[in-house]
UniProtKB/TrEMBL annotation:
<dbReference type="InterPro" id="IPR000907">
    <property type="entry name" value="LipOase"/>
</dbReference>
<keyword id="KW-0223">Dioxygenase</keyword>
<keyword id="KW-0479">Metal-binding</keyword>
<dbReference type="GO" id="GO:0034440">
    <property type="term" value="P:lipid oxidation"/>
</dbReference>
<dbReference type="InterPro" id="IPR036226">
    <property type="entry name" value="LipOase_C_sf"/>
</dbReference>
<keyword id="KW-0560">Oxidoreductase</keyword>
<protein>
    <recommendedName>
        <fullName>Manganese lipoxygenase</fullName>
    </recommendedName>
</protein>
<dbReference type="InterPro" id="IPR013819">
    <property type="entry name" value="LipOase_C"/>
</dbReference>
<dbReference type="GO" id="GO:0043651">
    <property type="term" value="P:linoleic acid metabolic process"/>
</dbReference>
<feature type="signal peptide">
    <location>
        <begin position="1"/>
        <end position="15"/>
    </location>
</feature>
<dbReference type="GO" id="GO:0046872">
    <property type="term" value="F:metal ion binding"/>
</dbReference>
<dbReference type="Pfam" id="PF00305">
    <property type="entry name" value="Lipoxygenase"/>
</dbReference>
<keyword id="KW-0732">Signal</keyword>
<dbReference type="GO" id="GO:0050584">
    <property type="term" value="F:linoleate 11-lipoxygenase activity"/>
</dbReference>
<feature type="domain" description="Lipoxygenase">
    <location>
        <begin position="191"/>
        <end position="589"/>
    </location>
</feature>
Length: 589
């Protein structure tokens, strides 16, 4: 792995020095000048669409497109080289300490993998407090659906949805105090469906392609698990509930987490990388380099095109990290992402605006059932989203004096046409709906959301701090899925001592501890002195306000503690992932 990085690094060492960007003119809207239009036409010739690197949506081609990829690969490589300086010493220490893991014979041995280990890679937060102590609690499992991967769960809506699978009515009564049909009609039943993974090519590891029911308890007002069903081709489907033996039920939750991990990773490839890449390529081909909207979009896409070439080499290739550590092959994962993009809703732009998406899944403002008592992802994502939206509104209003100026901007309108046409965007605003300043602020806010908040919720620092933390959150199991209940040794299903440290190092490779408190964080999303120097004073003032709001949000997130009930945001673990002074403002691998 590192040899490849160093080779890329050497190739990019001679990259061109920065041009004298400060001498460039202030950003402006198109003014009808032929010179500007011909500049865009020339850029368009050099910036082409090429087949997607590693499959999926188009990647940039042409001389300018390839230069962009090379520039971004150099950024990605520098990041990973720096990261290797952190994860390398962590791996060395973890390897020297191998005796203390006791050959991973019990679940508590898996906890020791993190005891005074991987400290540099998981800084500044470390593993989420509670994740290694409270993982057998049902509330921890269910609340992971509303924090670590919030993109799979939905409320079942009475009248339009039916109960997806039946569960023994005595057990349902016992667990919930109600029946499945009453829970559904009360809007208290929720569902996650990973059964589509059963069709994907397997690796040497195993996954159970589970679907699962959750409910909002009337007595405790908590969001809790009700049943997990395995869906293995040509095998019994087993339905597990909290009334099973502790070992069976724990293994069921772990098997569900395997599928949810896969979903989180390969949904994010489509819903964040693909969507942002497509929108940006269309923007490059239609907006002048002097356009303020393109300038902000370029800032958001810092380094973004360096990721897919690297993902092919490291993750998706035969024998790569996906094949080694997941239940489905890298090639199947690529197809799964591509399908989610084109037909599975992950590629949709407007439908996935933060509030729209959560509302469509019945998680906020639901017409049926009570509100969720706690929804950590919504709480933390919304704070960032609202501040970005405030920035984007000031920024857009400072350049467009009215809605008619939006309609009149020929480059902006060409962007909409290009995105819906050759670029292959899905559910993107059209030139007839991009007709207000609000519509533009919404679109830009969404792009900022997917490259930062949405991405880092499931990826980046999340893996080594929570979403991949053993023993409860593995990416595969290592024995066939049980065909009958009565499991006695859950630990025997988990990754063995021979591979486990490589697996954790792989997660360390996704984390970005060195970005924390640097000029690469969400708080610095717009804080590029060169860019702001070419903007107007209203935009500079909006950036100052944004940074101060993000600093306040960081203080709130980083100081979170357990309450008197041992909960934080209603969860038995502390979720500090979306700290704007810790996570990058850009996509990472
Ligand atoms: C949800 O409802 C609140 C008021 O309860 C409202 O302010 C908000 O705009 C609604 N959200 C959406 C996405 O409609
Ligand atoms: C419309 O665009 C033209 C240039 O294409 C510009 O000269 C004019 O000022 C714009 N009008 C408005 C209302 O923005
Ligand atoms: C961060 O600051 C360094 C040093 O001033 C600068 O070279 C770099 O471009 C900045 N990075 C970003 C993403 O703004
Ligand atoms: C979760 O674990 C922490 C210790 O890591 C403990 O302080 C807290 O009380 C636990 N919460 C519950 C609900 O058990
Ligand atoms: Fe990513």
């Amino acid at each position: 792995m590192s040899l490849k990085f160093l080779a890329i690094l050497a190739a990019s060492a001679a990259a061109a020095p920065l041009v004298e960007r400060t001498l460039l003119p202030p950003f402006s809207l198109p003014n009808g000048q032929a010179l500007r239009a011909s500049g865009v036409a020339t850029k368009r010739v050099g910036f082409q669409y090429a087949p997607g690197i590693g499959g999926g949506v188009y990647s940039p081609g042409g001389t300018l497109g390839l230069a962009l990829i090379a520039n971004d690969e150099a950024i990605t490589t520098l990041d990973l080289t720096a990261e290797a300086g952190v994860s390398g010493p962590d791996l060395t220490k973890a390897t020297l300490d191998v005796a203390k893991y006791n050959n991973l014979q019990s679940l508590s041995d898996y906890v020791k993998l993190y005891s005074d280990e991987w400290v540099l890679s998981s800084s500044p937060t470390g593993q989420m407090p509670g994740m290694l102590t409270n993982y057998t609690q049902d509330l921890l499992f269910s609340m992971e659906r509303l924090s670590l991967n919030p993109f799979a769960v939905r409320r079942l809506i009475p009248g339009s949805d039916s109960v997806p699978f039946n569960v023994d009515s005595t057990i349902v009564q016992d667990v919930t105090g109600s029946s499945l049909s009453s829970l559904l009609s009360a809007g208290r039943l929720f569902y996650v469906d990973h059964s589509d993974q059963a069709a994907l090519a397997p690796t040497a590891q195993y996954g159970a392609s589970c679907d699962a029911l959750f409910y909002l308890s009337e007595s405790s007002n908590q969001f809790l698990p009700l049943a997990i069903r395995t869906n293995v081709p040509n095998a019994n489907k087993l339905i597990y509930t909290p009334k099973d033996s502790a070992n069976d039920w724990l293994l069921a939750k772990i098997m569900f987490n395997v599928d949810d991990f896969f979903h989180g990773q390969f949904h994010h490839l489509a819903a964040t990388h693909y969507v942002a890449e497509v929108a940006f390529q269309a923007a490059e081909r239609t907006l002048s380099d002097n356009h303020p909207i393109l300038a902000v979009f370029k800032r958001l896409m810092y380094g973004a095109f360096g990721i897919r070439p690297l993902a092919v080499v490291v993750l998706l290739r035969p024998g790569g990290d996906i094949d080694q550590f997941f239940a489905h092959t890298g090639s199947a994962a690529g197809d799964y992402s591509a399908n989610l993009y084109s037909t599975g809703g992950a590629g949709d732009v407007m439908n996935n605006y933060l509030l729209t998406n959560l509302e469509k899944r019945g998680l906020i403002n639901s017409s049926a059932g009570p509100a969720l008592p706690h929804f950590p992802y919504y709480e933390d994502a919304l704070a960032i989203y609202n501040s970005v939206h405030t920035f984007m509104t000031s920024f857009v209003n400072s350049y467009y004096s009215s809605d008619s100026a939006i309609v009149n901007d020929s480059e902006l309108q060409a962007w909409m046409t290009e995105a819906n046409g050759a670029a292959g965007a899905v559910n993107f605003p059209t030139s007839s709906t991009m007709n207000t300043r609000g519509a533009l602020a919404d679109l830009l806010t969404h792009m900022a959301h997917i490259v930062s908040t949405a991405h880092h919720t499931v990826n980046t620092n999340n893996l080594i701090t929570g979403g991949g933390v053993l023993p409860f959150n593995p990416s595969a199991i290592y024995k066939p899925v049980p065909t009958a209940k009565g499991v006695t040794d859950v630990a025997s299903y988990l990754i063995g001592i021979d591979q486990v440290l490589n697996m954790i190092e792989n997660q360390a490779f996704f984390s970005r501890p060195l970005v924390a408190n640097s000029n690469r964080t969400v708080s610095n999303m717009f804080n590029d002195p060169v860019m702001l120097g070419r903007m107007n004073s209203a935009t500079r003032a909006a950036n100052t306000q944004f940074m101060s709001e993000m600093n306040a949000q960081s203080a709130a997130v980083s100081s979170r503690q357990f309450d008197a009930n041992g909960l934080c945001q209603g969860m038995p673990f502390i979720w500090r992932t979306l700290d704007p002074n810790v996570i990058p403002f850009t996509l990472t691998i």
